[in-house]
Amino acid sequence: MAEMRSLRLPRTRLWSGTDLPVVSTVLIWGINFSVIKVALRTFSPLAFNALRFGLATLLILAILYLRGESFRLARRDLLPVILLGLIGHTLYQLMFINGMALTTPANTSLLMATTPVFVAIYGWLLGSERVGVLAWIGVVLSFVGILLLILGSGGEISLGRGTLRGDLLILGAAMVWAAYTTGSKGLLTRYSPLKLTALSMLAGTPPLVLLSIPQLLRQEWLRVAPEAWLGLAYSLIFAVVVAYVAWYTSVQRVGNARTAIYSNLTPVVAVLVAWLALGDHLTWLQGVGATVVLSSIMLTRRGRASRVGAQR
After folding, report:
1. What residue ranges do the domains of the chain occupy?
2. To 5 degrees, how large is the angle CA 180–CA 182–CA 188?
3. Per-residue pLDDT, 166
C-alpha cells in the first residue's frame, strides 16, 4: 500500500500563482525575439547588448536603492555572486551572440532547448532536485516539441562541419544558462531575487561592455532607426530587468527544473508574435509542437520535487 501511495500524483492545480513570474518571463522573452530582430537592422549585436545590459544594470541598482535594500553581501557569498554574474551575464551572452553568428537559427533553438536537461542533471548531481520519471518524460517531450516547432518553420537543421563551431558555442550557452539557474538556488535562500539579480549584473556587465568596445566604436549611431531605440528600451527594461527578477523569483519559489522547463514556451510565444507582428507564417506542425511543449510542462511539474522543500 505504501508503494501504491508513493506512485500517486500530487493533487496540485496545473496552474497557480506560483507560475506567474516564469510565465511573465516567457511572454516578455517571446516578444523580445521580434523586438531584437527589428532593432538589429541598424544596431550591431554587441553594441546593442552592451547598451541594454549597461543601462539595465544602472536601472536595477537604482531600483534596489530606492527600495531601501542593502547592497551588502556576506563574505562567503561574494565570490559565488561574482561567479554567477560572470557566468549568467558575461559568458552566456558572449557564447550565445557569437554562436548565433556561426550557426543557423534552427540549430540555435534546438540546442538551447537542452537547457532543462542540464538543469535536471546539475540538480540531481548536487542533490538539490529530485527528478522523477514523469519529469524526465516531460524534459524529453519539451525537446521533441521544440524540434517540431523548428521543422514546422521550415528551418534546416545541420550539425555538420559548416556550423560545428557555432553549434558547440550554443550548446555551451545552454549549459551555462543551466548553471546560472542552478547556482542561484542556494543564494536565493538568503537574498531577494531583486538583490541577487542586481549584484550579479553588477559583476557580469562590466566585462561584457569592455569586450563590446570595438563594436561600440564602429557603430554608426546616426543611422540607428527610432524603432531600434524603442526596441532597446523594451529589451533593457522588460527583457533584462523585469524578466531576470521574475526568473529568479520563479527559481526561488518553484525550483530549478520546473522554471527551466517553462523556458521552452518562449519559442512558442516568439513564433506567435513573429506571425502577428512580422508576418511570419504559423504552420500546423508548429501548432503540434506548441501542444507538445505545453504537455511537457504539465508532466514536469507533476514529476519534479525539491529535496529542500521536502525537508520543510
Report:
1. 25-311
2. 95
3. 78
